[in-house]
Design a protein that fits this description.
Blueprint: E1 2-7, H1 10-19, E2 27-32, H2 35-44, E3 49-54, E4 75-80, H3 91-97, H4 101-140, E5 144-149, E6 155-158, H5 160-166, E7 182-184, E8 200-207, E9 213-225, E10 228-237, H6 239-261, E11 265-269, E12 275-278, H7 280-286, H8 291-295, H9 311-321, E13 323-331, E14 337-348, E15 354-363, H10 365-387, E16 391-395, E17 401-404, H11 406-412, H12 416-419, E18 427-428, H13 433-441, E19 449-457, E20 463-474, E21 480-489, H14 491-512, E22 517-521, E23 527-530, H15 532-538, H16 542-545, E24 553-554, H17 559-567, E25 575-583, E26 589-600, E27 606-615, H18 617-620
Parallel strand pairs: 1-2, 1-3
Antiparallel strand pairs: 3-4, 5-6, 5-10, 7-8, 8-9, 9-10, 11-12, 11-15, 13-14, 14-15, 16-17, 16-21, 18-19, 19-20, 20-21, 22-23, 22-27, 24-25, 25-26, 26-27
């Protein structure tokens, strides 16, 4: 069987059948309209003869490009493509159809055309395969990709990663001007005329769904795909980097504000101690007036020659420990020394490698002055406290004493070292322990001070009375943290009170039976005793007068004389008489005569007055 490929139409087929009408054997005809349609068959080699029409006036290649065939076949154009030995005896008919010089010339042109078409087809298919592979690669990489027509600026291709980044579909990107999807920071008039080997590295912004802006870093490279000039734009999401840059800028701005608004002086230096930055307080403290003075100075320049600490030792300890605080004498640019406290830290990079140091500096001038003032004040206070006869102590709630004065030590026969730092507790009389416990429990932030009299048992067994004024010191939570106490020995007073009470008991009845007014009162006017006659005269009960500063109304003209009368009483002349007027509650003026006795103790202190009086109004009338 002979296979015949006919390039033309069915008219050409009919003419070919007429040409082979005398041939013997089976003949299979296949018709294609153009050479491009015949190429797959040509590549497969599935035909023995290729037949087309030609004209002596036209090049045969014109018939193989799809142009209209002539109305009438002048002479068949035949190419033997199969094995000629398989063609039967009708070869003479075929040979007759392809004889002549012109035919052989046309054979050569047709063969060249077929070879060129085959080669071109191979190249196109390889390009298609390469493009398919490229698209497959671009679809699988984690980088956004646009392929842009260089002349029209239209996006021809966008990979899946780009679509996901923009949250858009292909229809929203393909066929659109690339500038509607991406802006390029470094874009210029020469952007679309990059050389074939040129690459543009830049930053830009991707326009996502609803106008969302996505910062990107990108490369633009000229490429040729399917014989057309294109641009390959690859881009990566730069949001994290931009956010990191913004966070860094915000952090640096915050650091700058903290440094500048700090009440302390702050210096930033390199590891050699060269000053890189100084805030306003540092400039004022050390007398810097120009930026050049700051950046040309070292930390070592700020150390006074009077200070024993060297910067080298300071840096060695700082680098060893990573943090250091010291008090030194510094030297300012305007030539004066000042005490400072410097707190320094090493600053490391992300890998933990030190690269600079920060120094926070506090001027101690005012603190030192305050310390000296406090020291002098404490010295004066200590002298006053030590000179007191009262017992003064300070102790914690657990009883640990951290201050006692000399009088306290002498009274208990202890040294200051024996008491301070220990839980020294005098032996309280058993009958007074409960009252003393309640006394301390009653002290509150609202009522921090209280008075109490109680007995103690001395080491030799003697029982003595003490009076204490105790003040509790509380923290912010209302918890007592310290007690400050001032006390004195009142044993003599208590003995006198007991003796007086016994004496009073003996003569109370005698006194109560007297018609004279009898009273006893302290120097501040507090009455400690009045008899019945006194109470009846003034219309008061004993309870109303005793314990209060009851003072009858003295007639105005007699007040100065009465004051001088009491001032005249002394240990040498403790008794005196006086007559004066009083104004009774109902307004009546009455005369009284009083005998007043001042009571003094052994050291000459006035402790009480005892007075006996009578009404002498009848006599004055």
């Amino acid at each position: 069987m002979i296979s015949v490929l006919i390039i033309g139409d069915y008219k050409t087929l009919e003419k070919a059948k007429i040409l082979f009408s005398g041939a013997s054997g089976e003949i299979h005809f296949n018709v294609v309209p153009t050479l491009d349609d015949a190429l797959p068959e040509v590549k497969l080699g599935s035909f023995d003869l290729l037949i087309s029409e030609y004209s002596k006036e036209k090049d045969p290649k014109d018939y193989f490009t799809g142009d209209a065939a002539p109305i009438e076949m002048q002479q068949p154009f035949i190419v033997i493509a199969g094995k000629r030995n398989n063609i039967p005896a009708e070869r003479e008919t075929i040979n007759k159809g392809i004889s002549g010089e012109r035919t052989r010339e046309l054979f050569g042109k047709l063969g060249s055309r077929i070879s060129g078409a085959l080669e071109k087809s191979s190249v196109i298919e390889r390009q298609k395969e390469n493009q398919a592979r490229l698209c497959s690669i671009l679809a699988s990489i984690n980088t956004g990709v646009f392929i842009v027509d260089r002349s029209t600026r239209v996006i021809l291709h966008a990979n899946d990663y780009a679509l996901r980044m923009m949250q858009k579909s292909l229809d929203q990107i393909i066929g659109h001007d690339y500038q509607t999807c991406i802006t390029i920071s470094d874009q210029s008039d020469t952007f679309l005329s990059l050389p074939d080997e040129g690459v543009l590295h830049s930053e830009g912004e991707l326009v996502g769904r609803n106008g969302t802006i996505i910062p990107v870093i990108l490369n633009v490279t000229p490429v040729q795909l399917q014989t057309s000039d294109n641009l390959l734009i690859t881009f990566l999401d730069n949001s994290s980097r931009k956010m990191a840059e913004k966070a860094l800028a915000d952090s640096e701005a915050m650091f700058g504000k903290l440094v500048e608004t700090s009440p302390d002086a702050i210096l930033l230096t390199d590891l050699a101690g060269k000053i890189l930055r100084a805030n306003m307080n540092a400039q004022e403290l050390f007398g810097f007036t120009r930026e050049e003075d700051i950046k040309s100075s070292f930390l070592d320049d700020l150390y006074s020659t009077d200070d024993t600490c060297s910067t080298r030792n300071f840096f060695e300890k700082l680098i060893k420990n990573g943090w250091l605080r010291e008090e030194i004498i510094a030297h300012s640019v305007d030539n004066h020394n000042l005490p400072i406290e410097i707190s320094s830290s090493i600053i490391c990079d992300s890998n933990g490698k030190p690269f600079s140091m920060i120094h926070v500096i506090r001027d101690l001038t005012y603190r030192r002055q305050a310390e000296e003032t406090l020291k002098a004040s404490e010295e004066r206070y200590r002298n006053i406290v030590e000179d007191q006869n009262e017992f003064i102590c300070r102790f914690m709630p657990d009883g640990t004493h951290f201050f006692v004065n000399g009088a306290y030590c002498r009274y208990f026969g202890k040294t200051r070292e024996e008491i301070a730092g220990s839980r020294f507790r005098p032996v309280i009389h058993p009958d007074d322990r409960t009252a003393l416990k309640k006394h301390f429990e009653s002290l509150t932030p609202e009522n921090p001070v209280g008075l109490i009299d109680h007995r103690i048992i001395m080491p030799d067994g003697e029982i003595r009375w003490q009076r204490w004024s105790d003040r509790a010191i509380f923290d912010d939570d209302g918890t007592p943290v310290e007690y400050q106490s001032v006390g004195r020995d009142i044993t003599v007073r208590k003995e006198m009170e007991h003796a007086l009470m016994a004496s009073e008991e003996r003569y109370r009845n005698v006194v109560e039976d007297q018609t004279e007014f009898i009273c006893r009162f302290l120097p501040d006017g507090t009455h400690v005793f009045v008899n019945g006659a006194y109470c009846r005269y003034f219309g008061k009960t004993r309870e109303e007068i005793t314990g209060s500063r009851f003072t009858p109304i003295i007639y105005p003209e007699d007040r100065a004389a009465l004051k001088k009368h009491f001032e005249s009483l002394s240990q040498d002349n403790p008794v005196a008489f006086i007559e004066h007027r009083i104004v009774m509650p109902h307004g009546e003026i009455r005369w009284q005569r009083w005998s007043d006795r001042a009571i003094f103790v052994g050291n000459g202190s006035l402790v009480e007055y005892q007075s006996v009086g009578r009404d002498i109004s009848y006599r004055k009338k």
